[in-house]
Design brief:
This protein has about 170 residues and is an alpha+beta fold. It has helices spanning about 1-20, 65-70, 75-85, 100-110, 160-170; strands at about 25-35, 35-45, 50, 55-65, 120-125, 130-140, 145-150, 155. The chain has a single domain (about 25-170), classed as Lipocalin, CATH 2.40.128.
Length: about 170
């Protein structure tokens, strides 16, 4: 019993640690979470697992005000420009070719000092166009955990939504 519990804890810790240390955050949308508060949404391209005809992947949100402030950093701007000059095309631009600044937003989101607002493990059933939360946590501005949440019911993915953008990118434009 103790071995089983140790294995579960080890897997859980490495999963959460892996999202922070080996992540490749890609921008896919933004939403208002309150009056005057917007959050940018990112999925971790390195965490996508394909199993049982579904995808599991980590999503995080970051306060848009934080992103905008850090975007002023010239070194990060140069890093994003070099990435684009090297041929990088942000996945969201496949859906919205005229959108700009996505590369710098992604570079900022991948910086280790950026504080995450929420981090959620989602499961997406691509063929059925539905998704659900598996687990996650929300964080205060100081980085301390505010709350946790577990598995939710399946929900239909609205076509012209942030969830729709995410599904189109990770499932393919079906």
């Amino acid at each position: 019993m103790i071995r089983k519990m140790t294995l579960v804890v080890t897997v859980a810790l490495s999963t959460f640690a892996g999202t922070a240390l080996c992540a490749d955050w890609k921008f896919f949308g933004e939403f208002a979470s309150g009056p005057g508060v917007e959050e940018a949404m990112f999925y971790d391209a390195e965490s996508i697992l394909n199993s049982n005809n579904s995808l599991k992947l980590w999503v995080k949100t970051v306060l848009s005000s934080t992103i905008k402030e850090v975007m002023k950093n010239e070194a990060l701007s140069k890093k994003a420009n070099e990435k684009v000059a090297g041929g990088y095309i942000p996945p969201l631009t496949s859906l919205y070719p005229k959108i700009s600044n996505v590369a710098i937003v992604e570079v900022v989101a991948n910086e280790p000092f950026i504080k995450t607002k929420t981090e959620i493990l989602y499961q997406i059933m691509c063929n059925e166009k539905k998704m659900r939360k598996i687990s996650g946590a929300s964080y205060k501005k100081d980085g301390s955990r505010e709350g946790r949440f577990g598995i939710t019911a399946w929900e239909r993915i609205a076509p012209e939504s942030n969830a729709g953008n995410l599904a189109k990118i990770v499932c393919g434009a079906k």
